[in-house]
Design brief:
The complex is a heterodimer. Chain A is an alpha+beta fold. Chain A contains two helices and ten strands; from the N terminus they run H-H-E-E-E-E-E-E-E-E-E-E. The chains are: A alpha+beta, B mainly beta.
Chain lengths: 170, 190
């Protein structure tokens, strides 16, 4: 054994193995976690086909309705910008509301992404049983302002840290 | 009997070690700062032409130097940059700053509701003005310091940032007594 260890190439191999093992631990513990967090902002937790329901994050998600508006839903709000329309999507969500998660909707046309309107924008106001907050019970409703020639293909429900909870195909 | 040159090996090894340590020290003393490592990548352009980065496209239409904006007097002088912003791929929150010589100015908070601020989205164009309160001597006629508008989205780290040279003369530049801001105009871009 001592004779084997005295050979330079054997010691080099041992050094290389130890180095690779250390790098592996760093990747698995630190970089791996960061990579996984990044991937969650790119790859949805689940993709729900149009007209179907799907499971994600322990909840069931399904598109309830899609409406298109060509005027501001608020009676006293400003008119929509020229050449734009609103798409209003309501999502039927079963399961417990989130307790510590804030989220928003993101409309997708295959290449581009539009975030849902916030308070003070063109959003349809919350009503009984319909909300834009993940932490509130009831259906979720998001309003999107986009150019009228856009043909949306999907909507993501996204946490504020960027994690895509679910992608609902339209 | 020793091989020829055998006595040189320890000396060569010591010299190699000294060189390696000196090189390491040199690298250590010249490591990039966090600003260098995480800083934005500038996309340069001129007023009058669209300048496009990863998250936002901007076109500066003109620059006005004014004594008052909406009746408000500045500490120095107002620099009003008329511009058009448009999102490229996703809805993003824009930020801007004006660099004049050694100084960097944030947009004035006096006209928040009338300025070109907030989110931009793909396919939706916003036209409006940004207003900066700038030291008067930096923008007096004949001042040598160039003006540059910086526009970026998010926190700007490791992302593109628009760096647009602003005119100090010509048809896109004017000096006026007063400017009345108009609300930003929003419309679909196509």
């Amino acid at each position: 054994m001592r004779a084997l260890l005295s050979k330079l190439w054997v010691r080099n191999v041992i050094g290389a193995v130890v180095t690779l093992a250390a790098l592996g631990v760093i990747v698995a513990t630190d970089l791996g976690k960061s990579w996984a967090e990044y991937r969650q902002t790119v790859v949805p937790g689940a993709v729900v086909p149009a007209g179907k329901s799907g499971e994600a994050d322990g909840r069931t998600w399904k598109i309830d309705s899609i409406r298109h508006l060509n005027r501001n839903p608020s009676r006293f709000g400003p008119p929509l910008p020229e050449g734009t329309v609103l798409t209003v999507i309501t999502v039927d969500r079963s399961g417990e509301p989130y307790t510590d998660v804030m989220c928003k909707g993101v409309l997708i046309d295959g290449e581009r992404r539009w975030s849902s309107e916030g308070i003070g924008g063109y959003s349809v106001p919350d009503t009984d049983g319909v909300t834009s907050m993940c932490s509130a019970p009831g259906k979720l409703r998001y309003t999107f302002l986009h150019p009228q020639e856009v043909v949306p293909t999907a909507m993501d429900i996204v946490q504020l840290d960027g994690r895509i909870i679910v992608r609902l195909l339209l | 009997m020793k091989a020829p040159g055998a006595g040189l090996r320890p000396a060569l090894a010591a010299a190699a070690a000294v060189l390696t340590i000196a090189a390491a020290a040199l690298v250590w003393q010249n490591l990039p700062t966090p600003t260098d490592v995480l800083g934005p990548f500038d996309v340069h352009g001129d007023a009058g032409e669209p300048v496009t980065g990863r998250g936002v496209s901007a076109t500066v239409e003109g620059v006005r130097i004014a004594s008052t904006v909406n009746g408000v007097a500045p500490a120095g002088v107002w620099v009003v940059v008329d511009a058009e912003f448009e999102g490229t791929r996703t809805t993003e929150l824009t930020h801007s700053a004006l660099v004049v010589g050694p100084n960097t100015y944030s947009p004035s908070e006096a006209f928040t509701l009338d300025m070109l601020m907030g989110e931009v989205s793909p396919g939706i164009r916003e036209r409006g003005s940004l207003v900066f309160d700038v030291a008067q001597e930096l923008v007096e006629p004949g001042a040598a310091d160039p003006m540059t508008l910086l526009v970026w989205v998010g926190d700007g780290r490791m992302d593109s940032r628009l760096s647009i040279r602003l005119p100090s003369d010509g048809s896109r530049f004017s000096m006026v007594d007063a400017v009345t801001l108009e609300k930003p105009e929003v419309s679909a871009s196509s």
